[in-house]
Amino acid sequence: MPPSTWAEFLAQADAITRRGLTPLSIGPAWTQQHVLENVLLGELGAVAGSRV
């Protein structure tokens, strides 16, 4: 089941890492920025996220 919170995501990533696998892979710089923006938006909300 996909995680629905950041804490669940981190817990699942830890479990995957313990199995000797890489839980997350990311491509070029633009994809890294896109992921960061989405995490900030989800965690901070639209108003606070736009001030970052």
Protein architecture, described:
The protein is mainly α. The termini are far apart. The protein has helices at 6-18, 29-50.
Largest sheet, in brief, is:
none
Low-confidence stretches: none
Any idea what the radius of gyration is? Answer: 13 Å
Total DSSP E strands: 0
| Helix fraction by DSSP (H/I, runs of at least 4) | 55-70%
Could you state the order of secondary-structure elements as H and E? HH
Alpha-beta content class: mainly alpha
Gap between N and C termini = 31 Å
Beta content: under 5%
Shape: flat
Give the integer mean of the pLDDT values: 87
Number of helices: 2
Keywords:
52 residues, mainly alpha, 2 helices, 67% helix, 0% strand
What's this model, at a glance?
With 52 residues, this protein is an all-alpha fold.
Itemize the secondary structure elements and their pairings.
Layout: H1 6-18, H2 29-50
